[in-house]
Amino acid sequence: MFAAAMVGVLVTMLLALIAAVRGPTVYDRILAVNMFGTKTVLLIAVSGFLAGRPEFLDLALVYALVNFIGTVAVLKFARFGSLGSDARRSSQ
Amino acid sequence: MTGVIDIASWVLLIGGAGFCIIGGIGLLRMPDFYARTHAAGITDTLGAGLLLAGLLLQAGPTLIGVKLVLIFAFLELVGPTAGHALFKAAYADGIKVHEGDDVVAQVAAEAAAAAAADAAPSDAGEQGAGDA
Questions:
Q1: B82 plus B60 within the same structural domain
Q2: Is B43 close to A39, i.e. CB distance below 8 A?
Q3: Residue range B92-109, pLDDT digits in tens
Q4: pLDDT tens digits, one per residue of B31-55
Q5: How many domains does chain A have?
Q6: Looking at the structure, do residues B126 and B107 belong to the same domain, yes or no?
Q7: How many domains does chain B have?
Q8: Are residues B16 and B62 in the same domain?
Q9: Is A25 in CB contact (< 8 Å) with chain B?
Q10: Whole-prediction pTM value?
Q11: Considering only CB atoms, which chain A residues are within 8 Å of B82?
């Protein structure tokens, strides 16, 4: 049953990859990559249970944190063209 | 009792995977960036929530369960936040809202056409009856 859930998550990741390659604007791509990251968290969690080693949940937790920071960082980069502290000054 | 919990957890796992796939299909087929945000939000909250709830029923009240609850809480907080940030950034950047078919006007036009079609044959029928 974990395998069925894993197949579902993998299919969703494939669809998100297709959307990321296809998406017309940069925001479509960021949206698809964000969804891919969330599905990676779920995949790690389910695969830990499938292998009988739920300690993988630590990795899933860390990946969830990194994924959110990464999404916001890429969003800021796409908006301002820079991640430095002078981004606010250059945008004005 | 364990059988009941197993069945409930399987239903939650399959439901979560199903919602994930539905959101993925929506991400590909929605006409508009803002509609695609909606599709991605479904997988981020409902799909992930159901999957993690199914895993939580398998884990039981252990440290693993606590970690699952932490992941669940974080994903539920962060998914809508990231979606909102994306939406706001895209709107500020001037991404156009999809101007699709105006469903209300379309239905009104179809109703008017149907009424006209109803009126025309009945007139013809009355005329035919009058002739006869």
A1: yes
A2: yes
A3: 888 777 776 666 777 788
A4: 888 888 888 888 888 989 999 999 9
A5: 1
A6: yes
A7: 2
A8: yes
A9: yes
A10: 0.77
A11: 34, 68, 71-72
